[in-house]
Amino acid sequence: MKATFQQYTLQFKRPAGTSRGVLTQKPTWLLIIEDNGRRGIGECSPLPGLSIDNLADYERSKLLWVCNHITQGKDALWEQLQGYPSIQFGVEQAFLSLEAQEEGVFFPSAFTQGKEAIPINGLIWMGDKSYMQQQIREKLAQGFRCIKMKIGAIDFETEYQLLKNIRQEYAPSDIELRVDANGAFSPKEALEKLKRLSELQLHSIEQPIRAGQFEQMARLCQVSPLPIALDEELIGVACPERKKELLQWIRPAYIILKPSLIGGYKGSEEWITLAEEAGVGWWVTSALEGNVGLSAIAQWTYTLGNPMPQGLGTGSLYTNNFPSTLEVKNGGLWWIK
Q1: Residue 108 domain-assigned?
Q2: Confidence band (pLDDT; 50, 70, 90) for 126?
Q3: Residue 111 domain-assigned (yes or no)
Q4: CA-CA distances (angstroms) from residue 242 to 132, 234, 270, 291?
Q5: What's the CA gap between 322 and 291, in Å, rounded?
Q6: If exposure means fewest CB atoms within 10 Å of the residue's CB, which of 120, 231, 269, 291 is most exposed?
Q7: Contact between 211 and 236 (Cβ < 8 Å)
Q8: Considering the chain, what percentage of its residues have pLDDT values greater than 70?
Q9: Taking each helix axis from N to C terminus, what angle separates 156-169 and 129-141, rounded to the nearest 10 degrees?
Q10: Closest residue by Cα to residue 207 from 250, 267, 157
Q11: pLDDT (tens digit, 9 = 90+) per residue, 303-321?
Q12: Beta bridge partners of residue 18, listed in sequence order
């Protein structure tokens, strides 16, 4: 058995606005395992500025180390890659790919047979008012019944009005609205903004304040009229005991699972088990992976049986993405046979 890796740079079709700035490209790495004529591929896809992976020694140290120790196997490697969740996920994918009976199919199901879809949200990227309005019209026309809008890049009043316009035209029973602040609110102003947003009968808000402000976040979750979902708050929390403590301390309504940022399938499944024990809801979201990683996330997500709209389907963002068996139709993610 031997392993190699290849670096690849994904190019955005249009600059993608986030509360941390604008992205025009994204690095990713393919981990390739070969054994007895079989080949397995996994995508290691850290997100600069958000992942805890140290990109300075990503190739030279960690990926090279994985290749030199690949015979240790998936579980042993995963345990030794704490602090590199995107590589943990790439290792999981590569070994599942190597063992797959059908190329690219890690979790055979009605989804990978093309019989059932995964309901997903339509994502509205940050930008100026006209660009966000354009995206909203497109998502509604494409049949989405759940829309997630990233907020925090332009002034709050403009974002509020955009959401209000949707709600005036579509009732909560017609369109579910979610927002993601990416930590854009200050603790001082957050509650007032949450009260205003709650008037629009939104489903939830992701990460209203910056991660790491545990006392302020716990207080917000206690008094907010709008359900709060934790996203960035989960990154870097690897120990099961710490995960349990965080959920018990903050008590959010939901948590958002991004396998590339929280230790792949194993890390995500630990969060799911603890969340369900604590009565906390959850859903899965991709984190700008290429189509290799997105396919791996989607297949696994379907097996979890969560009926909520998931945050998948970012493959169309890039001009030079990998080939894909996934297609978005009528607000759902389909596997195309």
Answers
A1: no
A2: confident
A3: no
A4: 38, 10, 11, 32
A5: 6
A6: 269
A7: no
A8: 99
A9: 30
A10: 250
A11: 999 999 999 977 788 999 9
A12: 21
Those residues whose C-beta lies under 8 Å from the C-beta of residue 251, and which sit 6 or more positions away, are 218, 221, 222, 278, 280
Cα-based distances in Å from 197 to 96, 151, 180, 192: 43, 11, 12, 9
- Residues that are catalytic: 150, 258
As a whole number of angstroms, the distance between CA 190 and CA 6 comes to: 43
Examine residue 244 and state whether it is found in any structural domain, yes or no: yes
Phi first, then psi: what are they for 269, rounded to 5°?
Answer: -65, -30
Pair 150, 282 in one domain: yes
Give the residue carrying structure tokens 């850290």: 46
Domain co-membership, 91 together with 131:
no
- Local structure of 21: helix, strand or coil: strand
CB contact burial 84-111 (16+ within 10 A = b; e otherwise): bbbbbbbbbbbbbbbeeeeebbbbeeeb
Same domain flag for 92 and 63:
yes
Residue 306 belongs to domain with CATH number = 3.20.20.120
User: Residue 39 belongs to a domain with what CATH number?
Assistant: 3.30.390.10
Quote the longest CA-to-CA distance of the chain.
61
Scan for tokens 């947003």, then name that residue.
Answer: 197
C-alpha neighbours within 13 Å on the C-beta side of residue 253? 16
Task: Read off the DSSP letter of residue 309.
Answer: P
Which tokens in the block code for residue 214? 């545990």
**Of 249, 247, 264, which is closest to residue 301 (Cα–Cα)?**
264
Which residues form the domain of 266? 118-335
Global model pTM greater than 0.70: yes
